[in-house]
Amino acid sequence: MKKTVCIATYNGESYIEKQLQSVITQLSNGDELIISDDSSNDNTLKIARKSGFNNLIVLEGNSFYSPVLNFENALKYATGDIVFLSDQDDIWVDNKILIMSKYLRFYDLVVSDAVIINEYDKIISPSFYKIRNSGSGFIKNLYKNTYTGCCMAFNRKILVKALPFPSKIHMHDWWLGMVAEMYGTTYFCNEKLVRYRRHSSNASPNCGKSIYSTLDMIKFRYKMIKALSERYTFNK
User: Does the pTM exceed 0.90?
Assistant: First the structure.
């Protein structure tokens, strides 16, 4: 099966080389690596182009100012049977693609656990699952999202159902996870397949501690239910 890895970048020169190395060593010649860049003004793309991978697609010149829209842009170009999401600053465990591909023979979307590291590659938490109380379930994840993009992989069935993203969706991984809950099968495997980096420049540095008000969270969930309902009606 052809595999696509989608990476959304923005000023990621500090960590992108190490992450690309951990990804590319797991890809075959027939796979593809898509980088969607959101107006980086550092050496991110220069480093990416030196990666040496023969099927690298770089989408540049975008001004999304949003990781959600940046990931959506990458996903629009994905042609693989299996799609992996990747942050620009994490590190993949050597057998991540192999293990998750095996699970994807039986499930439509798979999530792995991760160890959390800091900017110096030191482990600061041994399990992201324990922090998030991660697991499948529509109501569970509507109440509190435990789908984490950099730990996810899914098949084309989910990709086709999820695109295009609804307007002003709060989180891309939450949307993808909820689409899979509604249309397919999901599985949270116990293997820790990502070294998930947390630092001051992350798009989501709080590891599950919400920065939003109760009213905001109610609005997000209302929008999610509405978007899922509209997508269900559209796809009937």
Answer: yes
